[in-house]
Amino acid sequence: MNVGAFSLSPAVLVAPMAGVTDLPFRETVHDFGRVWVEGEMVSANPDLLESNESERKIAFGDEPSPRIVQLLGAVPAWMNRAASFVEKCGADIIDINMGCPAKKICKTDCGSALMKNLPLADEIIRGVCGTVSVPVTLKMRTGWDSDHLNAPELARIAESAGVRLITVHGRTREQGYSGEAEYRTIRAIRSAVRIPVIANGDIDSPQKAASVLDFTGADGIMVGRGALGAPWLPGRISAYLETGVDPGEPSAQEKADTLFRHLKRHIDFYGEKNGIRSFRKHLLRYLERFPGGTEAFRPLSRLSNTSELVSGLSIFLKKAF
Ligand SMILES: Cc1cc2nc3c(=O)[nH]c(=O)nc-3n(C[C@H](O)[C@H](O)[C@H](O)COP(=O)(O)O)c2cc1C
Asked: Is the C-beta atom of 223 inside 6 A of ligand 1?
């Protein structure tokens, strides 16, 4: 699959996840294979764009290219300015968010609300594509609700406006994250456009990835929640799609090593106080994968200094092996 100067085969991408796909997480995913990992969404609102928080979200370190930054917004002029800003900061690909289902986001006409306003969606996409020289991609849902599965129409609009890749989460906005993702609409999008289409939603194993690719004819897949506490999964899926052989789950020791490596990167990035607090969501996801991990999470999540946390974790993990 090619997007501008970048190519990826097999095309395995990691979904943008606010509060999750920060630099330490992305680096940890990259340890396990060549996949693309999209950063957290960045608001195009000028009051937020040049904030410390956005700066943190647009930090790339030594991350391999392409560095993918997602923008959220519904005001064309703001989106153009934000696109130009993140391009200057080093983004290699700019993704536009038309999939976020959150009420407070949709209330401001952003995210999946744009699927209800295709003329505005078109204006935003054309504006961003005309402003930057890096490739622009689009992430969307299948539609607002089951009576309005208009993703194929938006995909055609996006293609003619200059978008170079489309990712589709196989749920409507109305579904949020409930129920099961469906892939028929993704298959319809695949035949509606010529640009690469990435299938997303509920892909949590190499075998599921292969069957979704087979059913949809998509050019690649995107993994979101399946990679929480399992940053090795995207690399494992990629290896399976490439060779037909599933390398399987890492050993308990490898999982523990990964947890510690991720924790160290996280604390180096955020500092000890904030880092230990914000790592809790990752910690729970890692620990859930060990017997007794959910029970161990509570006391471990109360620890507030690195050496206590590392030694508490070591004791738990030794017992869990
Ligand atoms: C914690 C979390 C944060 C998310 N943040 C974003 C985001 O910033 N931008 C976006 O387009 N989608 C976001 N999503 C949606 C995912 O990118 C993805 O489309 C969705 O989780 C479906 O894929 P999955 O079933 O593999 O998780 C988020 C999902 C989760 C669980």
From this structure: yes
The identity of residue 34, as a single letter, is R
Contact at 8 Å (CB) between 113 and 66?
A: no
Answer yes or no: is the C-beta of 100 below 6 A from any ligand 1 atom: yes
* Per-residue pLDDT tens over the stretch 173-205: 999 999 999 999 999 999 999 999 999 999 999
Residues marked active site are found at 100
Q: Which residues does 229 contact at the CB level (< 8 Å), separation at least 6?
A: 282, 284, 285, 286, 287, 288, 289
SS3 content of the chain, % helix, strand, coil (to 5): 50, 15, 35
pLDDT tens-digit series, residues 234-246:
999 999 999 999 9
Q: Tokens for 292?
A: 């007794």
Ligand 1: distance of its center to the CA of 200 in Å?
9
Alpha-carbon gap, residue 46 to 108, rounded angstroms: 14
At 321, list the tokens: 């092996």
Query: Which residue owns the Cα nearest ligand 1 atom 29?
Result: 17
Residue 223 alpha carbon, nearest atom of ligand 1? 26
Q: Domain 2-243: which topology?
A: TIM Barrel (3.20.20)
- Please choose, from the candidates 258, 255, 238, 256, the residue with its C-alpha nearest in 3D space to the C-alpha of residue 247: 238
Distance CA 231, CA 84 (A): 31
Identify the pLDDT of residue 220: 98
